[in-house]
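We modelled the chain as a single entity of 508 amino acids. Its sequence is:
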Amino acid sequence: MRRYIVCALFLCVCKAGFLNAQTAVPPADEPGTEALVDLDSLGDIDSLFEEKAPASDTSAFSETPAEKPVVQPKPPAVPSASVISSLKKKGFSLNASYSFTGGVFPGWDEAPWYWDEYPEEQTFLPGLIMTSSMGLNYQLSDTLGVRSTFTFSFPGFAIAVDSFYLDYSVNDSFFLRAGKFSYNWGISRDFPFANLLSLVPTSSQLGVGTFYVQTDKDGNIKKIERYTHSGKNDTYTARLSIPIGIGGLEFVAIARDDFFNETNMKTNIQRELIYWGGKYNFAFKKADINAGFMYSEVMPLRVVLSVKTTLLNTELYAEGLAALGSGDLVVAREVTKWVDSAGKEQTTPWTEYKRERKWDAHAFSGSIGFARDFFSKKLTVGSEFFYNGESDLQWRTEADIEKGLTEPTYRGLIKGSNLAVNLSFKPGWRDLRFAVKFLYGIDDNTMELVPGIRIVPFPNMAVSLAVPMALGSRDGYYYRHNTDTKNRPFSIALAVTFSGSHRWDNYK
């Protein structure tokens, strides 16, 4: 549990540069302002010191949560047999955890090695977050279980429902999970490009402020509705898992929050907010293979294949992704007379667009990596090479056209060739740990280096220090999209966390 809590320490510094560029925090308007940083507002990101689980493709049969809230307890990975036995166990468990984190984060808007050429601006940021998390697991019968977790954080006064879903089994052969929850596809440790479930666009990216047509049976325009998203991007998922043969088959459907909006249900935006796919796991004795696909009307068809094995005590893994069919919007017709949602006749010219999929467009991405422990697992070494060829295979939305954009808006992983190296050393004294993360964008000569140290001097207390820095070209990706809260390419983070948790069980 402690490793989940510790990730709060580096919410402002250890955000990996390979994450979606949309999540990068923009530079501050006033670099010299000393503002209190609410760490909880920075999102859920992996800690530099979190022990990475062995690369594995997540499914109902081996589960690792996609999202890792600061202090939210998560269910451990369990095989399918354990899933069956847990559904037989009636009763409930209650989890409570608390975390108090404070720190200081000085930084500069230029790296020290550029100070002779460019004037630097120094910013000193204090940080604070206090968080409580509650989770309830209730097994109502042999076949039905309910899970829910929520988090409250201060000073942001934010209350979040992290998960709320049901588990249902049919004759120990079919397992359904439905509701608000997260999980991963893909085995990459550093570049989650094959986590197809995370590639689903948010509601706010789908034609904000554009019109959707309702027609009568003859195809004449009956009414035109304006789609405005709710501002929420919550994801709701239904997953059906079926153990078959040496592995398991899995089907998944994902809907954004606006899918259930009454107004949107009357317009054709509805079908753009649903995503579906499936995969199969082959659990061979010497290798684990996963093959899957994901599709929607506003995404290319993506097919993924991953393989992992262990050779001479070294974990090896490889993953490939093919994206087939790009899409664009073409003008269907121009309307000069129509009726709006209020029933008033309008004469303002309006253009209707339709989608056109181009199946001859394609792109390929892939990665290969390894991980190995030395000296009785005191030293862990891992590295991965990743090539992203999908940067230009994106769909243009109605919102892009309204904004006058001629090219598709792309917010994805850094394109081209990339390299990642991770080192972790644990001497075995008071949970002392040294860690180094290195990311290198080969094509544009841009790098991110984050060395750090963590120690637990007393029970329920952890102290961490890290120095995130951007290296290489000033025009490169990592220099402009670094881990710092104010996009500073060189900063220092010192944080202290007091945390604890407790669990109550009441099972028959």
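As a brief sanity check on the tokenised model: The chain has a mean pLDDT of 76. The chain has four helices and 25 strands.
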